[in-house]
Amino acid sequence: MKCTQNLGGIVAPSSGVLGGIAEGALIVWKDAEIVAAIAAAKEAGMAAGIKAGEAAGATRLIELIQSTFKIKNIAGEALGSFINPENYTSVSIITEALSNDYLDICIRSLPGSLRDVGVRYNSSSPICTFVEVGMVAKNAGTGGSPKNFIETYVQSFVSQAETTAEMAVQKVTKDATTTLTAQKTGAINTIFMSKQTAIIASVVAILKKKNEEKTRIYKTIRRIDVMYLVFFDVGRINTTNTMNSKNSQHITKYNNYT
């Protein structure tokens, strides 16, 4: 295919060059869109991972508190309501709530809102038994007050919950990024193919039109050639006839003279 076509003395790009330019621009667009799509997929994947990690961390902390202290509520709320993805790493808030629950459940209250520390009045509650038995154990190493004892466990639980959260972040981020990248790049490739098909169709239409124009020109030239040949043949015949007529006249005159 020629690189240029002469249009009335002006040299213009051929359909092949124009098609190549359009396809080249389309490839540049595709590459840029894929880079942007991958970046967006990574960002969205990380956001999904963080969200999933926080939820997993909170869930793990609730499981540890419930299985250790044998409680379903804290600070007058269900564990799942009080502990959430926003506060599950707050050792101080959780320790304070558990300590207050322990005092309310396990320690006898005296007039004036004072507590007779060490006097149990609810020996049937698992949290009371767990804290008090743990505190008097020889190798507990958790400090001398119920609050310190509870805080030691909460710190350990939060650390375990954060580990669970980190594992969830890594897994969900990877999975979400892979899925989103495939979705986004797949959509871009689909658009690319459709536009590429449109370019090819346009080039084919241009070539078809040019071929039709060439065919019409060739037909016109052929008709002109035929007309010229016919005209030339008629003229030659007429000339020959005229010459033959003149020769006949000369011969007649000669015969008459003789």
Oligomer: single chain
Q: Can you give the helix content as a percent range?
A: over 70%
Strand content: 5-15%
Rg calculated over all Cα atoms: 49 Å
Number of helices: 5
Shape: rod-shaped
Distance between the termini: 76 Å
Q: What spatial order of strands do you see in the largest sheet?
A: 1-2
Spans of at least 5 consecutive residues whose pLDDT stays below 50 are 1-15
Pfam families: RIFIN (PF02009)
Protein name: Rifin
Organism: Plasmodium falciparum (isolate HB3)
InterPro entries: VSA_Rifin (IPR006373)
Descriptive report:
This is Rifin. There is one protein chain. This protein is mostly helical and 258 residues long. It has five helices and six strands. It has a two-stranded antiparallel ribbon. It has a two-stranded antiparallel ribbon with strand order 3-4. It has a two-stranded antiparallel ribbon with strand order 5-6. A hairpin with a 2-residue loop joins strand 3 and strand 4. Helix 3 packs across helix 5 (146-257). The chain is rod-shaped, with a radius of gyration of 49 Å. The model is unreliable at 1-15 (pLDDT under 50).
Provide the fold topology.
Blueprint: E1 4-7, E2 10-13, H1 15-69, E3 73-74, E4 77-78, H2 79-82, H3 91-106, E5 107-110, E6 114-120, H4 126-136, H5 146-257
Antiparallel strand pairs: 1-2, 3-4, 5-6
Protein name: Rifin
Pfam families: RIFIN
InterPro entries: VSA_Rifin (IPR006373)
Summarize the structure.
Pfam families: RIFIN. By secondary structure, the chain is mainly alpha-helical.
